[in-house]
User: Fold this.
Amino acid sequence: MSKIKKKRLGFVLDMTPLVDITFLLLTFFMFTAKFKSESENQQKVEIKRPKTQADTAKLADKDLVMIKVGVDSVLKDTAWYVSMINEQDVVDLRRAMIEAKFPGVDEKTVSFKVMDTVWLGKIIQSCRMVNQKASFAMDADRRLRYEWVEKAVNEMRKNRATTFNFVTEKKQGL
Amino acid sequence: MAGGGGDLGGGKSQRRGKKGKRKAKKRLGFRLDMTPLVDITFLLLTFFMLTTSMITPQTMEMNVPPELDVPIEVKQSELLTVRLRDDGTIFYNMGMDAPEKIALKALRKVIVDQNVQLKNRCIVVLKASSNAPYGMVVTILDELNLAEPDILAGLKAAGINERKRKFTVAPMEAKDQEEIKGL
Assistant:
């Protein structure tokens, strides 16, 4: 009597579900990924945002004028960094600032480093002219003196921009 | 992972019985090596997973009164002033009362109580010193925002369903500085 020889199969693992899930995750991360904009690339300041817990809205991703206040990590000076988000606005604002002879402006400037309130007022005015609908967002470092924010708020008020946003970070562990 | 796709297109290739004389040719299903595809997919997945930051910045909306030539008059008795000194100490006072030192944690209760007591007529003004840390200013604003649900609940209990006045920020003047200097 001969025994039926069992054919020995190699170890086979069905990869289909794994690949399915992987593709799913890949698609998810691809769609949620948001890359740094040009203006974010230009600046060298690190901002520690103030933490809040109240219900707050998400930061708009268009029609926005961003005023960042931070300490330059190399030069150790504090300044306002004004930039606009919409691509057309960036171009228009740059043109306006070249016309106004903003110091250090060139064809590639996206974020304007402002050191005094006079220029800050002028640039905010230009932003208002470039895009009427644009809202203002203040992104300042929490360790800075309030004066920096106050001055910017005053300049915004002068230009009738009475509603603006403070960029904050959600407090974790609630 | 190598050979992972080996079984994918396998199909039914079991040998049937040996009935026919002709030896049936084993038919192979369509096989596609999935390995490179899976490799690249994993690579991309890892890349996107590492570059995506999940925490997006939040915003806190603020309204400031526009610059007017004619100052709007408000009753002193309806004015709750919160002042922030250079060193981060908070003072509060109602109307013409003398400023009183207050801890951040106790602030919310005072704000809620006064708002409910005055039934919508209370105006909270935050005056922050130029040298105070900005983070502290936002923390107080956050407290004021957090007080809102409690105020609403309080007003509702008193039969009012509408919330009219909120808080605002105002510049700190020399007079304000002087008042809280020695406290």
Residues 134-157 of chain B form the longest helix (24 residues). Residues 76-181 of chain B form a domain with the Nucleotidyltransferase; domain 5 fold (CATH 3.30.420). DSSP finds four helices and six strands in chain B. Residues 19 and 98 of chain B are 108 Å apart (CA to CA).
